[in-house]
Amino acid sequence: MDKLTAFVDGSTYAESVCDHAAWMAKKVDLPVELVHVLERAHASTAPANLSGSIGLGARSALLEELADLDAQNARLAQKRGRLLLESARERLIADGVNDVTMKLRNGDFVEAIQDTDAESTVIVIGKRGEGVDFASGHLGSNLERAVRAANRPVFVAARAFKPISNVMIAYDGGQSADKAVERVANSHILEGANCTLLAVCKEGDALAEKAAKAVKRLEDGNVEPKLVIRPGEAEGVIEDVAASEKTDLLVMGAYGHSRIRTLVIGSTTTAVLRACKIPVLLVR
Fold first, then answer.
1. How many CB atoms lie within 10 A of CB 60?
2. What family is this protein classified in (predicted)?
3. Which of 88, 153, 194, 255, CA to CA, is 20 to 30 A from 183?
4. Model's pTM, two decimal places?
């Protein structure tokens, strides 16, 4: 069964993840699955070397104490995870979504993405996780891992929720960008939205011609499109046009081509995601 899958944690983005998931779910009448992942510890609490002056009895006692501490921490993490899921579920219900399921998972985040991928229409995740300092400007490590692992579109929620009425596609002519155009054209979630297709190039370039064809595809779809051709550096142009068009959602191909190139967390996409204060939908 198709569903929206929203990954929640204790970050400041969790509420926005819930609100965006609720908004989309109501648009297309889909259930929402909330997932919280208890990732494996990256380091053991046991000391690396218990040799030397510590006697056998003392070492055994210390190991037992550390094992008890690990077990206690695991129980607290599970309790906290359940509370986070319950709080997210309550928020979704308050937003008008009643079909909400919860899943508390142990293991790796990427494995969780892959396991939910087949039945998910969209995967929703916050731009930064709870372990990332907002002021640092760094993206959450799980964001890159999620996009690389997912075969479904990944909706990257901004800090605050706003209903989406103006969409912009950053179009570079690559395969992922063409898939993004198809996704927007056929989207019932974005039905009736204003859609700007931006190509960072000069008038008359091959990319401009291809962008014009992409706009015709959008005209046959569920949105109201217009074409913007603008030369310059991709990152700056995308940011400027998004602001001038009062864009609520930026759509990009997850794998780039031409000026928006390399793997998803490459030069342009990373810069745009870092600077962007609006949600971004990444399509493979």
1. 12
2. Belongs to the universal stress protein A family.
3. 88
4. 0.84
Tell me the C-alpha to C-alpha distance, in Å, between residue 262 and each of 145, 198, 241, 256, 268: 15, 19, 22, 5, 9
Q: Does residue 147 contact residue 254 with C-beta atoms inside 8 Å? A: yes
- Domains for the chain: give ranges and CATH numbers: 3-41+77-157 (3.40.50.620), 166-283 (3.40.50.620)
Q: Which two tokens stand for residue 58?
A: 């003392």
The tokens of 81 are what? 């995870």
26-48 confidence digits (pLDDT tens): 999 999 999 999 976 543 444 44
List of residues 6+ apart from 15 with CB closer than 8 A = 91, 161
